[in-house]
Amino acid sequence: MAEVEETLKRIQSQKGVQGIIVVNSEGIPIKTTLDNSSTVQYAGLIHQLVLKARSTIRDIDPQNDLLFLRVRSKKNEIMIAPDKDYFLIVIQNPSA
Amino acid sequence: MFADESLESVGVESVWRSCQQGALQARSCQTDALHSDDAGVQTRFSASIFTQTEPQEQTTDLLRQHDPAEPDPPGLLDFLRRTEDLIIRELVKNTRSHAFDGFQADWADRSQRVSCLHRLQHPSAQEKDLHVSSVSWSCTGSVIVCAYGRTDDGDWTNEKSCVCLWNLDRQNLNPKQADLVLEVPTAVTSVCCHPNQPALIAGGLYNGEVLVWDTSRTQDPVLVQTGMPAEGHREPVYQVSWVPLQRKAEFGVLSSSSGGRVLLWTVDLDRTRLVLDSGYAFIRQQVPHSGRTSMKVRGSSTVGVTAVALSPWDPDTFLVGSEGGLLLRCSFSSRTPAAVPAEDRGVVLRAPAVFSFRPSSGPVHSIHCSPFHRNLFASAGTDGLVHIHSLLQADPVLSVRVSDSYLFQAQWSPSRPLVFAAATGHGPVQFFDLACRALRPAATIEDGAADRAATCLAFNHQNRRLVAVGKSDGSVGVWQLSSDLVDPGPTETAQLEQIANQVSD
Prior knowledge:
Chain A is an alpha+beta fold. In chain A, about 40% of the residues lie in helices and about 30% in strands. Chain A has one domain (about 15-90): Dynein light chain 2a, cytoplasmic (Beta-Lactamase, 2-Layer Sandwich). Chain A has helices spanning about 1-10, 35-60; strands at about 15-25, 30, 70, 75-80, 85-90. Chain A has a 5-stranded antiparallel beta sheet, with helices on both faces. In chain A, strand 4 and strand 5 form a beta hairpin. Chain B is mainly beta.
């Protein structure tokens, strides 16, 4: 338990990180550093995005699989590390 | 000699009576018979249905609360161990990457940078050839208040004037007819809407009066006014603004006039008057000189105040621009009494000037503090330049040549730290973006007839894309800016900081 918090703290201390969310395979957020409403919003929307991205990659080449997803916007960047059971979502503002 | 005589009486027939009895005719009329009918209706069957909303599910149900006693879901720790290094590597690379510097994807149509939404006119003001002297948006961002007066007259006028309000969010907006017209006995030189209550508007008049209107009252919209007290203004009030009062959580009205006075009034609803709370007077001898000025000015020693700006960062500081080109930083809490002849006043006038910036050669028409940097402010005057000053030094940090004619107003954009707009005497309103190296305007609002000066402009703080421009032909244009003039970039605050830290030689 403590180690999970330690890991999240290490990631949070990187430069420009605005928030971290850990989502399970059903799209329900498990750990978060943002407020409730933002977390629920991010989790729902990003879960669908990751599933769509993964199916896109696998449709193009069934031997391939999604490794990492980065969405860059005007204000910040969202990085998603997907896995079988969980997704890790980190929101960073690189110029802050 | 005299003898009695009796004459017969003379009679005159009445002509009136005979002509009244002239021709008589009788006429009659009757309405047609009324048809009426009876019918009965009865419902054969009825059905009823009820609906009710259910209490909204808590969104926190979706988020499992972290319970220290509850163990983490299985596999979470392994997952985090696997992905932690990958993520941290990417985060660090991202902060160092220059891949996206200067890259812009444009979702909006770039062709039109400014587009005109409405052109509002008040026909009776235009007939009297009045200029728009001031515009202000209400705190909700949907009502625009336009004040009519003259900007080029040096004389006293007795013309009645008005203040018009348009609600732009109404569906049946009529640009030729205002939603509400407030009649005013003299020309209005300045208006300002209350920052919290959308119905209150403060206005300053050409004869020195300060009024507050309450547009929610139907009977008499004038809520309080100063009248013409001995301690009030005697010269046109060129600027009014709402100032938060330190003692109570209310707002007072700060008014400044070309008679050299800046007065702070509080609203006293019991006596329906504006009561003078504190006053400041500017006398030339009490103004600090910045050392480089070697002006020997003879004549009156009052410093006519044409522009006042409040600093949103420091409630004690305010900036003042004068008719002679002086630019001063002043303090509300100064204790020095002003060297005015001691009349019988209730309130002692104080001299607030603390620091003097480099003066310009003509009257300062407008000052505005930057909402994004605590030390920067912009000033515009008759020399066609917008000077960007820092509060810490006397010389301007940057001077931008906007046009060859007078500048009537300069305002910082409320959303982009590096953008400011200036209203010129030729007519166009120029928007400058300090991020571009070439100091040419990023956008221009040109409206119709040339040589009709743009006398005032106001950004809408609620809907950041709207800007209102008042012109000397009595029309007010509401313009919409494209998103690249409104949306701030990621590094703009840092660039503004860099500009502020430049020290001029």
